[in-house]
Amino acid sequence: MSEPTTTPTPNDEIEAVAEADVDQSASQPSNSKRFFASGFGRSIGLILALVVLVIVGAVTAGENFMNTDNLLVILRYASVIGVVSIGMTFVITAGGIDLSVGSVLGLASVVASLGAIQTAASGFWPLMVFVAIAVGVIAGLLNGLIIAYGKVVAFMATLAMLVAARGLAELISQRQTQVVDNTGFLNFFRSDFLGISWVVWIFALVAVLGWLLLNRTTFGRRTVAIGGNSTAARLAGVKVRRHTVYLYMLCGATAGVAATMLLSRTTAGTSTHGQLYELDAIAAVVVGGTLLIGGRGTIGGTVLGVLLFATLTNVFTQNNLSTSVQLVAKGIIIVVAVLLQQRFANRESSNT
Amino acid sequence: MIKDDQQKSLLEVTALTKSFGSARALKGVDFDVRAGEVHCVLGQNGAGKSTLIKVLAGAHQPDSGEIQWNGDVVTISDPIAAIELGIATMYQELDVVDGLTIAENIFLGHEKARGGFTNRRETAQATRDLMKRLGHADLSPNREVGTLSAANKQIVAMARALSHDVKLMIMDEPSAVLDSEEVNNLFRVVEELKSQGIAIVYISHRLEEITRIGDRISVIKDGASTASGLPVEGTSTKKLISLMTGTDLDHVFPPPVPLAPNAPVVLEVSDLSAHGTFSDVNFDLRAGEIIGLAGLVGSGRSEILEAIYGERKPSSGTVKIGGEALKLGSVSAAVDADMGLSPEERKSQGLMLEEPIYRNATLSTFTRFAKGPFLDEQAERAATEEQMKALELRPAEPNRITRTLSGGNQQKIMLARWLIHGTKVLLLDEPTRGVDVGARMEIYALIRKLAAAGTAIVVVSSEIEEVLGLADRVLVIADGRVIAEKPATEITEHGVLDLVMKGSAA
Q: Over the range B331-358, which residues count as b (16 or more CB within 10 Å of their CB) and which as e?
């Protein structure tokens, strides 16, 4: 996996140091308690959960689970929702939400797989990718403008986009499945690099770039500042509205990237692609440790959250358990993760 | 320890201690409250006032010590037990429900009902009686609480306390959210309650209020009582400050520095108006000068500041910085033109509380430290640490989480932000709100030092004394108009209030 997901980031270390200071000034809990309250400590919890899940998989499904091919299956499965979740991490870190990513993904898949586009892309297949991303960016631009300048709450603005984009996708595709026959496109996505599918590499690349953007750039700082206190950011001179638009465009772009990945996996574009992906993405982001109210975001946590759910699905499939049971287990994981998150939040605020 | 015992006490607290982990919040607090008195509890932020209130309200259990109620030793195991004894607490953050009516709020949890149906008429009548008792018969029981001012919400919270059989009411900094007119009304209500035999524990750090309404005073410093039951009469402000801070302070405000005769004009505000809020505001501000805007809440003083800063779009007029006209209605244009604002509500408008100090200090400058799109956090931390040292913000740990700092230190971070920015015009809205006495004087000295270094400063404060003490020149504002402009040395607090009254009447 990408490097930042498995090692503590410098940023996490800072958080750990800072929180240790808080503890000293108020009370002196044990070292372990302090450690688990830190950003890295929270990721450790996710890693442990993942390890437990892998052990369960190994015990119950044995060889079928513990082999390289299956591992790659899990990663490929995780990649599409993973890319969407990276974009979602930015929006949620800034205190927003984007419910439209699933529909926008569907719309992008339909537009990119239109006969005319595929023909135009016959000599240059990346055109399909650009088209899909462009669809996502335009949808995100609309979301952002309505939220930032129209002052509509993000939940409602993106809910409207969720409905409208799905409808538009149905109109454009006339509810038909559009088969992808652009050979250049299919050949690329079917090929491997170092034995690992390009789909997985794309996820890794998006995750690494996302991590850099959030933790190392002024763009990331603005994002965290707006989520932490948007009034303070505005009064300090940060162009909050403009940045909000950029954030939804970024999130739309990741939906577009995910659309091309899904196109290659299913070799078809349809308006039903991406249904309920918004909920999977939000779940992965929040379980990963990003605060739903904004102000704190972790790309590493999001990647772990995505892997956790992907592995869970795989373990259940390997054991021939119904998807219904799987949904129940997923629900429980979400609640437990959020309960843990809240306990940390309470503990921190009671220190003041 | 100074003590004074003559009369039988309603509540008597002896040697109360309370620790959270290794932090000892209360290290031995003694005080007693008599029926029908206003007993003020003074202390700086972090002295343990909040913990004391929470122990009396049943929200915390003391580690040791004794609480006597009417001569009997009692245990206040939870908030319900406190209410049953007759102790009501009015917290600083009012716990009223905005979406409910006044009547519904007052009887929340003990509705006048029969078989699950509320008796609306009876409730309304009981509410009217309570509001009358509080001198607010004008407020209809059916009015939604969300539409009320902070002052009236406070009245509702008090009425709710009175709807139980209350013998002792604890008020935690009730004046913090009120302007001077509202404070006068609060005091009338307090007097009224007192005459009905209710004892009041009044928590505050505003000394002038205490001398106005208090009967006796207890002082807490670092979790321990330094004075208990001092009579208000005959106790000097100076003595109270020394009991609170442990130091003797002679003068609160730093002496003004004479303005250089050739100091350039940096801020020019001409004919600035906004429909319905203020009109025709004109003033010039020179480098190194401090100008104060004095006026009541609602006079338009904060709105003028917001318009200058671009947070609010004026309908006409110009603002020039260094001779250049500023794009109106744009905060980022103002910041780029080297203007800075420390907003009224520091916590909700100024700071990211969960973030490290340095990220708050560099919130307006992090792009400047960055190399292209990439942050240089090392440089940000270094710059912050330098400012923290200059502002005597200890410990100088830029990585500390901002929430853990006191109000005074949080205010210093706001100053650090604009010092790092190198701002030429600094707008300070309520620079010492929620800042305790000791830190206040430090902030005053820093503001004066900034001005001496050439920064032009505009100060807005609801405390007229603060405006007069800090500013070189004062603009008196009433009903959105500047009604007088005078050197601060030529006007008194009374003079300002007189002008305001006349200005409003005219």
A: bbbbbebbbbbbbbebbebbbbbbbbbb
**Interface A:B, Cβ pairs < 8 A:** 107
Q: What is the mean pLDDT of chain B?
A: 84
A75-103 pLDDT, tens digit each? 988 999 999 999 999 999 999 999 999 99
Bridge partners (DSSP) listed for residue B224: B28, B221
What does pLDDT average to over chain A?
A: 82
Q: What is the mean pLDDT of residues A6-27?
A: 38
Q: What confidence score (pLDDT) does residue B36 get? A: 87
Domain ranges of chain A: 8-349
DSSP B258: P
Residue B462 and residue B439: Cα distance in Å, rounded?
Answer: 18
C-beta of residue A230 within 8 angstroms of C-beta of residue A154: no
| Distance separating alpha carbons of residues B201 and B54, to the nearest angstrom | 13
- The architecture of the domain spanning A8-349 is Orthogonal Bundle (1.10)
Are B233 and B309 found together in one domain?
no
The interface residues of chain B toward chain A in range 395-414, judged by CB-CB distance below 8 A, are 397, 399-401, 403-404
Query: Does B212 share its domain with B339?
Result: no
Q: Which is higher by pLDDT, A121 or B330?
A: B330
Interface predicted TM-score of the whole assembly (ipTM), two decimals: 0.76
Q: Is pLDDT at B269 greater than 50 in this prediction? A: yes
Judged against a pLDDT cut of 80, whether residue B497 lies above it is answered with no
For chain A, say whether B137 makes contact (Cβ under 8 Å): no
Averaged pLDDT, A106-127: 85
Give the Å distances, CA to CA, from B278 to A30, A80, B75, B405.
57, 56, 55, 36
Beta-sheet strand order (sheet of B473-478): B339-342, B425-429, B456-460, B290-294, B473-478, B481-487
A337 CB neighbour count, 10 Å cutoff: 21
> Is residue B5 domain-resident?
no
Partner B contacted by A233 (CB < 8 A): yes
In the three-class reduction of DSSP (H, G, I as helix; E, B as strand; rest coil), residue A193 is classed as: strand
pLDDT of residue B222: 80
Identify whether residues B112 and B79 lie together within a single domain: yes
Task: State the average pLDDT over residues B160-174.
Answer: 86
A352 touches chain B (CB under 8 A): yes
Q: List helix spans (H) across B115-149.
A: 120-133
Closest CA in chain B for residue A238: B332
Domain stop point among B213, B245, B277: B245
Task: Map residue B225 onto helix, strand or coil.
Answer: strand
Q: How many domains does chain B have?
A: 2
How high is the pLDDT of residue B267? 93
Cα A350 from chain centroid?
31
Is pLDDT at B177 greater than 80 in this prediction?
A: no
Please indicate, yes or no, whether residues B185 and B99 belong to a single structural domain of this protein. Answer: yes
CB contact under 8 A, A235 and B366: no
Lowest mean pLDDT among A257-261, B82-86, B207-211: B207-211
Looking at the complex, report in whole angstroms how far the Cα of residue B370 sits from the nearest Cα belonging to chain A.
7
Query: What is the model's pLDDT at position B1?
Result: 43
Contact B29, B48 (CB under 8 A): yes
Q: What is the pLDDT of residues A231-268, one digit of tens each?
A: 999 998 899 999 999 999 999 999 999 999 999 888 88
Residue A22, chain B, CB below 8 Å: the answer is yes
Residue B475's DSSP bridge partners are B293, B485
Alpha helices (H) along B134-195: 150-163, 180-195
- Verify cis geometry, omega within 30 degrees of 0, for the bond prior to B395: yes
Mutation to test the B interface, candidates A229, A290, A346, A349, most B Cβ within 10 Å: A229
Average the pLDDT over each of A47-51, A70-74, B195-199 and give the range with the smallest value: A47-51
How close is the nearest chain A Cα to the Cα of B75, in Å? 24
